[in-house]
Design goal:
Elements: E1 11-14, E2 25-31, H1 35-42, E3 43-44, E4 55-62, E5 69-78, E6 89-95, H2 99-110, E7 114-115, H3 120-127, H4 133-143, H5 148-158, H6 163-185, H7 195-213, H8 216-224, E8 226-232, H9 238-246, E9 264-270, E10 273-279, H10 289-304, E11 307-313, H11 320-329, E12 334-339, H12 346-354, E13 362-364, H13 373-383, H14 400-421, H15 426-444, H16 450-457
Parallel strand pairs: 1-7, 8-10, 8-11, 11-12, 12-13
Antiparallel strand pairs: 1-2, 2-6, 3-4, 4-5, 5-6, 9-10
Helix pairs in contact: 4-5, 6-7, 6-15, 7-14, 14-15
Amino acid sequence: MSEIFATTGTIAAIATAVVPQQGSVSIVRVSGSQAMAIAQTLFHAPGRQVWESHRILYGYIRHPQTQQLVDEAILLIMKAPRSYTREDVVEFHCHGGIITVQKVLQLCLENGARLAQPGEFTLRAFLNGRLDLTQAESIADLVGAKSPQAAQTALAGLQGKLAHPIRQLRANCLDILAEIEARIDFEEDLPPLDDKSIISAIENITAEITHLLATRDKGELLRTGLKVAIVGRPNVGKSSLLNAWSRSDRAIVTDLPGTTRDVVESQLVVGGIPVQVLDTAGIRETADQVEKIGVERSRRAANAADLVLLTIDAAVGWTEGDEEIYEQVQHRPLILVINKIDLVDEAESKILQSKIPNLQSKILTAASQNQGIDDLETAILEKIHLGKIQAADMDLAINQRQAAALTQAKISLEQVQATISQQLPLDFWTIDLRGVIQALGEITGEEVTESVLDRIFSRFCIGK
């Protein structure tokens, strides 16, 4: 039995981030049969405050032996089953910081609780029927959301937007299985099986699974974000492009080539997708040892990026240096950014573009004038195949685990169809149909193994 499955006893953990001199309130959460007893041991509520569920009490946390004052705090009481874990839960809301909240946690551990494992509060909520597995994963996504759209998608999952269609698909498969097994057990008492109806139902289920699988890539982008590297020769305006895009002065901009010596990062959101933008040092041959290190880091950043913005100077045109850089990054998803377009007239711009390799994605910008940024963001969304996705469609996005289960369900459905076309006995139809039902059940938790739970909840933070 893995540690994550050891859900007996009363658990406690700090439920808020602990940062020095940051945050006015810190929370210690306790869940389990001893939660109320621990609260009554540590918390003194003056006056005639009533200790009942869903009450907020004001008072003091004291050491139970010495009666030394630890903190002035409030206590939240949530008795089972009306709590996050469907167990008795209490929360000590203390003053923020490091020392006080750790003292309170230590007192809880000394008086009957044990330290919670990562994600154990949410695991108990799942095991006690408070959440299904898709909702539990959505909570982790919500905590780690890097953009408003990522948070919105996580909230949609928490509200059951993914679980509902999965359960419906599984119910449809169970209905088909019941029809088939009824013919196996009571063949003489029932009319013949309607093969066309079964095939049509399987095709509909397959189509819906295919639709859900199409959200895998955007789900991954919402969760992990996109890494974009701005590369090019020195002094083509890479830092100016980063500053204009991020609407800040993240990078130093001068007329001197080689100003940027290291990779400068900025976090942006484009079309709801978190984007990590890397402004790299100008790539060129140099004798300067420090600049040489920066150039090497630029090459590594370009090779690790999901998308490369190859930036050139419109006033200078396509050079041998641009060609050399292009040869190094052409294997990556690429957008050509023709910067400083404000320094050339329309005729010169046409001549310049005629000499550039025939790249599909070209954007004209004047970073110093904040021009072309909207076109650049549109090109990025189109490059990652999200340009035509409506905002409403972004509410549903599966993760890798869910995608693997859906892929297995789709494979099993295709095997059912092959079995039917080969006119094999009905018993063979049921084998792969049960595989579909099991795969769909793994997504919501109707069919789940200890190893799956261990893998999911070990990625949670302690206290959630």
